[in-house]
């Protein structure tokens, strides 16, 4: 078995493990207060209302509420359905972090990073709520929005201050 095939099998296993950990008892608890606010803001009848409420709330990027709004239209408002979109982002963060880790440090680094995220109790917990936390991990680590290219360039040019500033941000 080639190294490429082995890493693909390992990544698939990590994604499946990540999914299993996050879907277990997804609807085991009723909605919490902040999840209720997410449903209220995203459950408005029009996109304009969703954007207005998101602007008024100010603590969550409007893209989350728009995504949840579309998801509610498609899947409904059960606790399972509301939390599934967050679970989906949480699971997608695992291969996205693998890609970022592989880009920065090689395949081994990518596998270890994906394993740590897949097993992270904090990430599992926040991937099971109807909030934007898992989406905020997925978005910056996904290849189209990844900061990995910046980090690679900074590493090559030895821009220590820039890297420290980026990491602090």
Question: Which properties best describe this structure?
Answer:
10 helices; single chain; mainly alpha; 169 residues
Figure out the total of helices. Answer: 10
Number of domains: 1
Low-confidence stretches: 164-169
Straight-line distance between termini:
41 Å
Give the SSE string: HHHHHHHHHH
Number of extended strands? 0
Main β sheet profile: none
Share of helix among residues? over 70%
The gross shape turns out to be elongated
Query: Which structural class should the secondary elements be placed in?
Result: mainly alpha
How much β-strand is present in the residues? Answer: under 5%
Mean pLDDT: 84
The radius of gyration computed from the alpha-carbon positions, rounded to a whole number of angstroms, is 18 Å
How does this structure look, described?
The chain has 169 residues and is mainly alpha-helical. It has one domain. It contains 10 helices and no strands. It has helices spanning 3-23, 33-42, 47-57, 62-75, 79-105, 107-119, 121-126, 133-141, 148-157, 160-168. 29% of the residues are buried. Residues 164-169 have low confidence and may be disordered.
List the helices and strands and how they pair.
Layout: H1 3-23, H2 33-42, H3 47-57, H4 62-75, H5 79-105, H6 107-119, H7 121-126, H8 133-141, H9 148-157, H10 160-168
Helix pairs in contact: 1-5, 1-6, 2-4, 3-4, 5-6, 5-8, 5-9
